[in-house]
Write a structure and sequence with these properties.
By secondary structure, the chain is an alpha/beta fold. The protein has two domains: 219 residues, Rossmann fold (3-Layer(aba) Sandwich); 69 residues, Alpha-Beta Plaits, CATH 3.30.70. It is built from twelve helices and 14 strands. A six-stranded mixed β-sheet has the order 6-7-8-3-9-10, sandwiched between helices. The two termini are 48 Å apart.
Length: 321
């Protein structure tokens, strides 16, 4: 439903997005992650036709954003980070007005507005002035606006920004429910909520796509991990078992246990071999596991951590000249 190929957006000499490529299939809810200033909003503005790309292509529902902007917009519902709504209209009046602008037939308009309000959970404030509802409800009014023409594709830019925990919980549930009928690209910088709502994430940083996959897959293959082992026995015997497996770690003693924590490279799993080495030394195992990083730790590794690695490599190369 969404296909992006080598998308680049420049503002003068500044490159906001560079050769970005990804696809979102029908019925997927995909999280679009990145720190502030990563290029998320710029990408969404290009996809929704608000800004032209410098180069590359973007297609929604099989239509090119650049050459068939109106066709794309008929297939698209967009919730921007700051919802532009008229405060002096009642919620239901505003949505009827928006439905008319989006070409919903007059006979179908009342039903379309009612369905959008029900999906967004704003039926109870339908007759209130938009300017008199809370910030959380305004976000939901914006979501109902995106839904009112029942588009197959939804693009949501930071939909929970500025909401309290209860409001965020409600919006996240609404987004999960949308998967039955819509393809959703969901932008956020809050890792936990993206993990709860989506089955797949795209990570962009400094305008470049850094990762694409499910949160569990990305964490499992894309960052270092920790080995934790604790046994009842002599610390020297544990050190010997670790050394036999090529694991470098300091052994400490406490609470009657000899234990160690070792950093492992991505993808490494020495547990089977280490378990055999411990059994050969008759060491009763209290704990033996590989601890994966949190999503936050992984995110740091592929954004700021990657930056530091690139900077260190560049500095070493410069020093060697």
């Amino acid at each position: 439903m969404i296909r992006v190929r080598d998308l680049t957006k420049r503002y003068g000499s500044f490159v906001a997005v560079e050769r970005l490529s990804f696809e979102v299939g029908r019925g997927e809810i995909v999280g679009f992650l990145g720190p502030n200033g990563a290029g998320k909003t710029t990408t969404l503005r290009v996809l929704t036709g608000f800004q032209p790309a410098t180069s590359g292509t973007a297609e929604l529902a099989g239509m090119n954003v650049a050459s068939d902007s109106l066709g794309v917009r008929r297939q698209l519902g967009y919730l921007p980070q700051e919802v532009p709504i008229y405060p002096d209209l009642r919620v239901i009046e505003y949505l009827r007005y928006r439905a008319a602008l989006k070409g919903v037939p007059a006979k179908a308009r009342a039903g379309a507005v009612a369905r959008a309000m029900d999906k967004a959970g704003i039926v109870d404030v339908g007759h209130k002035l938009v300017g008199h509802v809370s910030h959380g409800y305004r976000q939901r009014v914006g979501l109902a606006d995106a839904l009112v023409a029942n588009p197959p594709i939804l693009i949501l830019d930071e939909p929970t920004s500025g909401l309290d925990p209860n409001q965020r919980r409600r919006i996240k549930q609404v987004v999960r429910d949308l998967a039955n009928e819509h393809t959703v690209l969901f932008s956020s910088h809050i890792l936990g909520e993206v993990q709860e709502v989506t089955s797949r994430v795209l990570v962009i940083h400094r305008g470049v796509l850094r990762a694409d996959g499910s949160p569990a897959e990305l964490v499992a293959r894309g960052a270092s991990r920790r080995l934790r082992v604790a046994v009842r026995g002599e610390p020297g015997a544990l050190a010997s078992a670790l050394a036999a497996g090529g694991i470098a770690a300091d052994v400490v003693v406490g609470d009657g246990l000899a234990s160690a924590v070792a950093e492992l490279p991505a993808g490494a799993d020495p547990v089977p071999a280490l378990a055999a080495a411990l059994a050969a030394r008759a060491l009763p195992v209290h704990e033996l596991r590989v601890e994966l990083p949190t999503l936050e730790e992984w995110f740091h590794a592929v954004t700021e951590g990657a930056d530091r690695g690139e900077e260190a490599a560049a500095a070493a190369q410069e020093a060697g000249r």
